[in-house]
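Class prep. Write one:
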Amino acid sequence: MPRDKTASHAKILIAAREEFLEYGFEKASMRRVGERCGMTAAGIYRHCRDKEDLFEQLVAPAVNRLYDWLKGHVGRYMEAVQGDGAVLWRDTEIDLMREVVYPHMEDYRLLLTRAQGTKYESFLHDLAAYNQAEMEKYLPMLRAKGYNARDIAPKELHLLLSAYTAALFEPVAHSYPLDEALRCLETVEAFFLPGWKRLMGF
């Protein structure tokens, strides 16, 4: 369905974000969304197929921004390990949080805490699984290039990535102010990054 970019559509999205943040996807009401923006439910359905489509319109840009960053991040490391030179330690998911997630914490809080009943309800698990799949390809490539990367069991890697991902997004889930979230990120960075470097042989 084409997205209507009129002022009415913008009002609906503002009202829908408020509704989903307050009630979550499952308990959110299209009637209340209409009341919030001064429209009838019928008027809202001219801008979306259903409640799930409206939720999708709110969170899909945030999901796309996150995975676009990750694909670039993975691509840079893969290109380096396949090249002739040294593999340098460079950007990490810490940078992802600073650059992409924390400036838009409200959008990601919808994904983390208000998506039950949608395809995004396992967002953190899916994100950790994506990172695990990429790392399981990357670690053997590092070893083949001569780096002392650890041969870690998939269950152990899943445990580490799940803990890391949860720690990164904890300030989002609990609506920390940005300055406090960034301080917490420094603690996560100090705790996890030395371990990741050791695991990968850097």
About this structure: Residues 58-200 form one domain. The chain has two domains: 1-48, 58-200.
